[in-house]
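Bit of a strange request maybe. I'm writing a small parser for structure token strings and I need a real example to test against, not something I typed by hand. Could someone generate the tokens for this chain?
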Amino acid sequence: MIRRPRLVSRSVAALLAGVGAVTVMSLSGVGGASAAPVVCDSTNGKAAFRTTPDQACGARGEGAARAHAEERTGVGTAIASARTNGKANAYNLGAKSTALAGAATRGTSYSVTAGPGGYALAQARRGGLTVAIAGIGGTALAGDPGVKCSGGFAIAYDSTTGKYCFGTGRTYITNMR
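Reply from user aminoacidic:
Good idea to test on real output. This should exercise your parser:
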């Protein structure tokens, strides 16, 4: 059986993004910050915002969309916004980090920060899936016009364009041109 290279690269990128997300989520409870998390959920056009002096979350879902944001460090931000049946999920698990997620037109996005100083932005569209995971000092961007990884550890994937990147420090693997 002959496989198309693009299909294989998409499968590898999806697998790496999934493994990274599962790893980050499974480790998030171990040795976590002592601050109480702030959680914001939004469905059916309702918005939710919560703040403390050093942390914030916000979620807004328009219509039948769903948005979920969690800030778990006590010193960071998580914001999610979805519309047109989209599903946006933002998880800040790294101190002094920011996780932003957006989704439109049945898209699904996951934005996760897992280390201090991380910045993750995932913007899904047209039924696509985007994943952005940023570790210590990393920047992960997934959405229009593609993906970008820089700084420390980062993974980004956009199923709409089939683009991905992952790596750490100076070594990154990507199919962006």
